[in-house]
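Recall that a protein's primary structure is simply its ordered list of amino acids. Everything else, from secondary elements to tertiary packing, is in principle encoded there. The following example makes that idea concrete.
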Amino acid sequence: MDAWPIGVFTSIDAGLGVKLEVAHELGIPTIQLHAPHRQTRTPENAKKFGDQLDQLGIQLTCVFGGFEGESYADIPTVERTVGLVPLSTRAERLIEMKEISDFTRHLGCAVIGLHLGFVPHDSSSAVYREVVAVTRELCDHAAGNGQSVHLETGQETAQALLEFISGVDRSNLAINFDPANMILYGTGQPIEAVKLVGPYVRSVHCKDAMWSQSPGETWGREVPLGEGQVDIAAYLNTLKDIGYRGPLTIEREIPQDPDRQRSEIGHAQRLLSELRTKILGS
């Protein structure tokens, strides 16, 4: 596959991401998939979905985990509810991520991803060590399935994420870089961040956002690609500089307005295609 194929974040039944039909209608050749509900993650359904992808000529590049009870209502709620960090749900969610890894193996995909949650700032704390341990356990399970684990950026600064990856010390742990999340969470300038974590970037999201007036305390605002403060052209040029050649996966989460969602994904597809031609000359 050529460098920088366009992708889109999709779902089967979990509500996040557009339906596969939208990717097909727009002629988008790659997808990331939000893992379907637990009861539907069967080998039979994996085969059925894989056959559908083959028929449409679409490549699956990553399956993202998500969990019941997660909420992105505001930053403090994310800290309490998202990922493998919250203690009350950690053990059960680790089991579920392992199940998602197994389901992903049936799909023939070599990458799983997730929002790990807010890793504690104090790397000497017991909670930090526990999150390192649970991440190692997930990475080891994924390795048994021939998979990498991609952590999505957002909740940590780039430097903190680098230190965490170093502490986990697993060769199959990498980054799904989302530039808008750095702005939405107020954790750093996305272009500088991608330069810093570049050696670990194995997948990316293409999303745009505006800074909040109180970064890190209140949400920034997600906007259509090219209308925010990421600077998408600079972002792609930096991806070129770090040697990234994988999919440019569009993420636009407005499922409550599917017509606008489809329209804005189409706009993002055209913008990325134009920039790809300018930057790569192809």
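The chain has a mean pLDDT of 95. The longest helix spans residues 258-280.
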